[in-house]
Amino acid sequence: MIEVQDLTRRYGDTVVVDGVSLSLPERAFVSVIGANGAGKSTFLSMVSRLLPMSAGRAVVAGLDVAATPGDVLARRLGILRQEHGVTARVTIRDLVAFGRYPHSGGRLTAADRAHVADALAFLDLEPLADRFLDEVSGGQRQRACIAMVLAQDTDCILLDEPLNNLDMRHAAAMMGLLRRAVDERGRTVVAVLHDINFASCYSDQIVAMRDGKVVAIGPPDRIVTSEILREVYGIDVEVVLIKGYRTAFFYR
Ligand SMILES: Nc1ncnc2c1ncn2[C@@H]1O[C@H](COP(=O)(O)OP(=O)(O)OP(=O)(O)O)[C@@H](O)[C@H]1O
Ligand SMILES: [Mg+2]
């Protein structure tokens, strides 16, 4: 579904994504972890064509990203950016309808409206649908932005820190929902997460990045270990098994 070879991004002499090669499976929940500045957002931005690559190649759903027009790619891949800056005076329903743009070109059909209604329901946003974005909380706005990406109805969904601004209940609900998008709707979800324990419980694969490189990739059992977390974050973290999930703790 997503194949990347030697993907590289440089700013001047500084390499921020450094020759990343990987292959992510279809119908999987993939988490990307790594310290601030590791290159996670830059990686996602190149895969989704928001940022030009300095070198390398990315192929999404059989489409060579660099050679595919934006509107064609947008029917196969949706992305939520880390700093989406969505605060305009539009209602949640209208924002979610923007997600249909690659399909509708701005003129919504009955099918487009059904996708919007479905995304609003999937994210429990129906009671808020007619509120303006500047009249809801940060977490509610975050959910609306994710609904917009889901309404785009793409095989592949990239989410840069989807849990931003979400409380524990809504974060857990969001992870459950993304898991359902994979299991029930056959999507491929790639999410940048800072919460290792959510990544551990919900992911099929975890990609661990440091200094622009992938230092480890594999199922949570292999990645959520004290050794790898020390390599990724440079701190000592204890990992214990709770209810079958590897769970990381940091002690003062
Ligand atoms: N426009 C730019 N010019 C120069 N350097 C940049 C630019 N954008 C990002 N960088 C640098 O690239 C590196 C990777 O940034 P990136 O945003 O990909 O990190 P990240 O892993 O997403 O971090 P975070 O967890 O803080 O979101 C950082 O060191 C950052 O300072
Ligand atoms: Mg980032």
From TrEMBL:
It is found in: Cell membrane. The keyword Cell membrane applies. One of its GO terms (cellular component) is plasma membrane. Keywords: ATP-binding, Cell membrane, Ion transport, Iron, Iron transport, Membrane, Nucleotide-binding, Transport. GO terms for biological process: iron ion transport. It is a peripheral membrane protein. One of its GO terms (molecular function) is ATP hydrolysis activity. Residues 2-236 form the ABC transporter domain. This is Iron ABC transporter ATP-binding protein. It comes from Methylobacterium terrae. The lineage of its organism: Bacteria, Pseudomonadati, Pseudomonadota, Alphaproteobacteria, Hyphomicrobiales.
